[in-house]
Amino acid sequence: MLYAVVARCPVFAGKLKSLDAAKTKTVPGVRDVFAIDPVGQGAFTAGGVAVLADNSWAAIQGRKALQITWDEGPAASESSASLRQQFLDHAAKPGKVVRHDGDADAALNSSVKRVEALYEFPFAAHATMEPMNCTVHIRPDGAEAWIPTQAPQWAQGVIAGVSKLPPESVVVHTTLMGGGFGRRYQADFVMEAAQVAKVCGKPVMVFWTREDDMQHDFYRPASYHHFTGALDAKGQLAAWKHFQTSTSIEAMWSPKGEENPEKSEFATAAFIPYQTPNYR
Length: 280
Prior knowledge:
Layout: E1 2-7, E2 15-20, E3 30-36, E4 48-53, H1 56-64, E5 67-71, H2 80-91, H3 104-109, E6 113-121, E7 133-139, E8 142-147, H4 152-163, E9 170-174, H5 188-200, E10 204-207, H6 210-215, E11 223-231, E12 237-246, H7 250-253
């Protein structure tokens, strides 16, 4: 079995511009270096440069020796500060109303007590205890894979697509996993392993370091929330108003996902465990 790691652009949606692998190929144990293409809908991989080696250490050291120039693309200037500013800009505008009971504004203006609070959440990685990995062997007559996955049928389909084999010729062994948390309900790490396995023709484990895992995860969305609440003379909840803006989960799965936020990232905000006649 061989081992491989992938060098990915540090900026999302960035692309490989140039590659010099001369130093990498002198690292003991390194077998090959080659580019793999990014894949969009269906896998959402970054693409990059695969370093194939006899063992994990050689693969990692070989990747460190790569001389790569990336085309970082339009997202190169994005930052936490610029994203937060987008949230603030959105908060200053009317948003899509996904629930409107009673008259929250009137209740807030006439309330005995009014409370306001702002909450901000950054992107959060799943940080599974076991970093991502996938082992694939593609042969002319079939393929076999050993994957700590939450979506074995999806993984099977990805490998079948890359290998051009019928799905029934792809055997997926679903292994125990060191934490999933939804991260392993993705196909990016399977796609990369299938791409590498197709080139090398031998069983290969494509593994992620902890740094890879933190930098190239599918993150919990960043979000900004403005809450306003009101109590009546009896101390009961008279009104609840919640403004939310966030990056979109649904937009990743569907081109029109941003049109219906109440079905995804805003769904839980439309239902609260409190009773109030005025909710917006």
